[in-house]
Fold each of these.
Amino acid sequence: MAKPAVERTFVMVKPDGVQRGLIGEIIKRLEQRGLQIIALKMVKPSVEHISNHYPTDEVWIKRLGDKGFNVFNELGIDLKEAMGTADNLEAGKKVRKWLIDYMTEAPVVAMVVEGVHARDMVRKIVGSTLPNKAEIGTLRGDFSVDSPAAANLEKRAIKNLAHASETKEEAEKEICHWFSQEEIHQWDRPDHKAMF
Ligand code: IDP
Ligand code: MG
């Protein structure tokens, strides 16, 4: 019988994770939870490849702007002054551009991760998008204090070490975007017999 709980997700060590020597730490946290790396490579992505990795629809771009805006609201900072616009879509477009600059600064490590509830498990291990709000024990909570207020005022993306797919659709699209079928390997972890 097919195992309904077993999922595949896409994970990437971002340029700051690579530059800070955290590739091993990030992979360790995935493996120790029982997740399996079934594809892995280091890539220096082109602007086009990264731009196609992130969604282009307006709903997603608007939501990107939201994350920073909420923090500005909490701090009582004037949105228009900080972002040069009070429009979420326009702010989102700026953040998307900063994100592409960030993601093409240095190589990234791309992976396909498989395991029980892999998408959710990896998102939990990685932690909140905003490192200043991420729980201690998560990657972003343990290794970063970056925040939208700090990043947006410096006109750059939030540096948060790793990317992980959020939905089934996102995972499927991202896995195909980064890996061919031949680069993905089916193999067994014998210790799973003792784990589940
Ligand atoms: P996620 O990486 O936790 O899935 P998304 O909302 O999908 O978060 O955003 C993609 C990436 O865009 C984030 O990981 C972060 O690097 C960057 N980002 C998100 N919101 C902002 C912001 O308000 N300012 C600067 N960068 C942002
Ligand atoms: Mg995301």
Amino acid sequence: MKSISVLGSTGSIGTQTLEIVDDFPDLFNVAALTAGRNLDLLIKQIQKYSPDLVAVADDSLLPDLKDRLNRLSKDQRPKSEPILLSGLDGLNEAASWKHTDLVVTGIVGCAGLMPTLSAIRAGKDIALANKETLIAAGPVVLPELKASGSRLLPADSEHSAIFQCLQGTPLAKNATLSTGVATPGLKAIQLTASGGAFRDWSLSEMKNVTVEKATSHPNWNMGKKITVDSATLMNKGLEVIEAHYLFGIDYDHIEIVIHPQSIIHSMIELSDSSVLAQMGWPDMKLPILYCMSWPERIKTNWRKLNLSEVGKLTFYKPDSSKYPCMELAYSAGRLGGTMPAVLNAANEEVVEQFLKERIHFLEIPKLIEKTCEAHKSDINSEPKLDDILLVDSWAREFVRTVI
Ligand code: NDP
């Protein structure tokens, strides 16, 4: 029985993780839950899973949470009373909770950074969905992983595919899992991308993008921020940086290929020229489950992949004039240091402004580029945590000022 802390339990990753717990009640239980603002769903989850500890990100919601739990009738109450916490301290406590074996990081954005670091410092195994943590703070996270022995298991479907393909390819001498040390046999990575909501739209048609259209993905059912990131292909750019830090591979050997069917979740090329791919229906439960069971495989009765039903698998090169965010991410990744943190924070802020309908979709890359340009002369190539947090706030403020 593995005990799981689910950070961001009310989101897309969080709820899918809890569905896996439902599917395998003899293998997993829930030790801790955290949420942002969705108390209605959080309370239902507390009733169902009886976690030891629960934290809400917003301090002002804690009294309401306590009150609503106290008002539950005897037969509606969870089996045991959870410890109730709030704010960053609460999230950190949930991430490092003593009874937790594995922490699933489903918080969206750089808000996941500090709780993920807490889990790392407590030596926990981590199912990393919250990619923004590694993108913003790779140079800080990797040494912390090495020092604590915590293992970072990729829950993002593309990185899970790479990770799965790498099983059986020996790691470098003295390398530990996911500490940015290249696998000697790994030559290149091909990240597949669905192409997002507008893959079949021309650049001129994209002038008509609305928030509603940008938040509906053709293949995956995800939170709003990552769905917009998929439509701009910033998500793929962020995944390039994530792959660089996770697998210790340089940017020249990470390629993006559009694969509209989302059946191949990514591919690796090995030094002998063999290419390995991992396939499955587009369903995040599989990569999350693999993090939860690794290195074992759990038998499921989930829908079997049937290639005759899929029919054809197609691939083409992404158009960088249509998707400038992709190149911005490569460029920030190559510059390194604090630049990926600036790119990430600018993107988070700009997407939020787009979702509030304060800017148009096509302004997203322009504002991110402007922010990165403004930071170019100030890049810190060996940032500490405080430097990352500082540039993160600076970039958000810069975007708001420009808008
Ligand atoms: P959602 O928006 O669906 O969920 C986000 C979760 O984070 C919610 O539980 C939300 O709480 C919580 N949250 C929001 N803001 C804060 C905050 N400031 N502090 C603490 N908690 C907060 O996002 P997704 O599940 O789609 O994505 C989560 C992460 O996983 C992202 O980093 C994304 O890139 C990554 N990912 C997601 C995939 C997917 O299929 N969804 C695929 C691959 C990666 P509440 O709702 O209660 O306010």
Amino acid sequence: MGENLPSIRILHDTDTAGDDSTALMMALKASNAILEGVTINCGNVAFDQQVENALYTIEVAGKSGKIPVYPGARHPLIREWETAENVHGNDGMGDSGFPRANQRPEQKFGVDAIVDLVNSAPGEITLVATGPLTNIALAVRKDPSIAKKVKRLYFMGGTNQYLGNVTPAAEFNMWVDPDAAKIVLHSGMPMTMVGWEICMRHGLVNRSELDEIAIMSTAEAKFFAAVNRRAVEFTKEVEGRDGAPCPDSITMAIVLNKAVATDVRRKFVDVDNESELSRGATYVDHLNVLKMRPNLDVVYAASERLFKEMLFRMLRGEPV
Ligand code: RIB
Ligand code: CA
């Protein structure tokens, strides 16, 4: 188990598909995290399916009824919503055909849940966004004061001088709702960006690890293998890499143990929400040529070893 790490109060905002549910499972199994709730945004697959995926993940973790799940925005701020069943399977969970969880979602709107939780505990709530930033943007628009009350927002999104994964320019979460990303990046919120390149360099569960997981008997290992099944097929076909990309869970690992992020630099970062060709592209001003005040902490490198130690503790059913 990780050395005595500080206890963290987390709200996980997610477009629950395989990698998101792996990240959620890590938070549910973390000995130093208090998961205050889950809010659902519009990303990977059909909205109500994402809600069910989050509820089922909580059930597999043995926390059914203990972690509230709040449906958030069912549509990006402006753009038409385009999903990614081709990456994750029609259910987002590797087409595993999981049963319906007993727990039902809350009636409260996810954006209101974010605003109310942050206002109830200024300086204490860490937001972890592993999908498009629609809910976070709406929360900041509803109550701009939360930007200074959030302890920190960690988001999986964008790229730092690296190819996109949904277009040559853009990573999926930023591409789905670039207008929300624009609002959040300029909100003044303390935030850390974990780009797609961190996953491809340090967060890919490789073939030999997948083979090891395939023969593990824990519920967590079987869940991981199932929910990431389609993403493994997609990654081999499109990226030519044989493994399971874990962008959301390496982001969650960084939240749970800051030592996972081995190189973090404060930079000015902006996002393109105007052009079509580079819609959703994030530009990290690495050389400070724009002379703009830095607005983000960018993770430049992460410890694959530490991440995988945490991931495998979860897969063995041990506290992360
Ligand atoms: O680009 C990868 C990101 O988009 C991941 O968070 C994945 O779940 C999707 O939301
Ligand atoms: Ca996601």
Amino acid sequence: MDGQSILNEIASTSSGEFYTPLPKGYKAGKTKYVVITGSVISGVGKGTISSSLCRLLQDRGMNVEPIKLEAYLNVDSGTLNPFRHGEVFVLDDGSETDLDLGTYERALDKNLQGGNFVTSGKIYQKIIEKERAGKYLGRDVQFIPHVTGEIKLVLRNLAVDTKADVIVIEIGGTVGDYENMFALEALRELKYEEGAENVCFLNITYILEPNSLGEQKSKAAQLGIKRLLAMGIQPSVIVCRSQTKLQESIREKMSLYINIAKENVFGVHDVSNIYGLPLKLREKGFDEAILKILGIAKKFKANGNTALKEWTKKTSTDGKGKPVMIAIAGKYTGSSDAYISILKALEHCSFKLNKTVTAKWIDTTNLEGKKDLLKKQMEGVDGVIVPGGFGTRGVEGKIAMAKYCRENNIPYLGLCLGFQIALIEFSRNVLGLKEANSTEFAPKTPEPVVCLLPEQRKIEGLGGNMRLGGHDVQLKEGTIAAKLHGNAKKIRRRFRHRFECNPEYIKRFEEKGIVFSGKAAKVPIMQILELPKHKFLMASQYHPELTSRPTNPDPLFLEFVKKSAK
Ligand code: GLN
């Protein structure tokens, strides 16, 4: 029986054992699914390999939609601490997601939406809402079929909404985590319902190579994948991550123990430039193997690799460019994942300018009142980024850093909080408003140069939501910002903030030389500032790092790195 007949049969069953709601117009086989799981350990590049696969399929002219299934119970990533979980990646539609969505957007060079990210919390929330509304018609609501049914519905909704040729599903964590059991069970059901030719399971495993042995060992990988087999899931493709090139004997063992043709066991060992990975995988026949399993290798042929080669070339440097050192002055400096999009945006500039950009972490929590330490930390630094952030910790150190950059003509790029910091610093040391502050850090400050947005003030008592997602930024003619953006009248960028420049101070800032070169369309929200007489002092209330792309770096970043390199 093919997928559609199975779905028809389920739909016509009157007893309540099945729960497979389908979006209107859904047809099995129209969209194919690739399910990516990890085994042995996390952190070995599941996201990188999935996004490389997306790139490869897109390169064949396919409409590819990634979706990340996160196991945690938060409804979205909005409240997560970046130090523990990495940065919160905001989509154009305002969804707060985890950093993997950034990886996918950069790999595919396209904007994703809330439907590309789902947490267990979001699934359970939907189920509880339906239950309270009596939608389950008196049935007891169970993990199987209701939770699994809801997960499948999310996937099929994405298929219908986007008309995707392929949906690449990345399961967070590794096989064996209690947390992602129901997601895996849902996907086992999906394969049965859609038909074997429409769903391909791929497992990314890790081959150990202990120093004491000096050889590769596959036992952990075998046992890890056996857990999938025990759940009724037979992967069709395996990627073996390893430190050194995969040994042939290991490939054979994996083939034998996991019932997979040898040619569907791929080795990916550590590489320095991940941008070269799609082309390398293509040369090994990786995407071809997956499309063969899905029966569409003939329909979507690879196109001579010219575009892919071009992209690979554009996303590298020759390593000979002059090094530029950029300091990132924040408070989550112990975790590079907390600022991953900033690091990527710098990397995009390095490709364009053929420079080696290195990042130096400066923890601003320690800088307060320590002038000498700041000076010492700044040795060899060519430019400074003050990134986004929330809460008081480290703020005074950031203000000291902004002052140092302004006074010593060192390039400064402020991002969101870094924009507000530049305003506070300027108020205190140029406007002479010694007690200037943001009401976020000093609610009773006599000089609230940064304060709550008017619309946020209204809803403050109700839990105060943030201004989130994509908004237009109108650029002022003749300013640096306008020039950097090709004299565009407006650009669209992503925001995540509650506070802003207090409109009552705008005139005073302008009188002393600050130019507000980007503003919101209908409300007096300042969105870009520049100090034209400085080597480079610019800041944006938005997050330019979220929309910088490998072959298309954000103009603010690009100019900042250019000026820092001089
Ligand atoms: N805390 C500041 C605000 O809420 C800045 C936010 C940010 O940097 N993302 O406006």
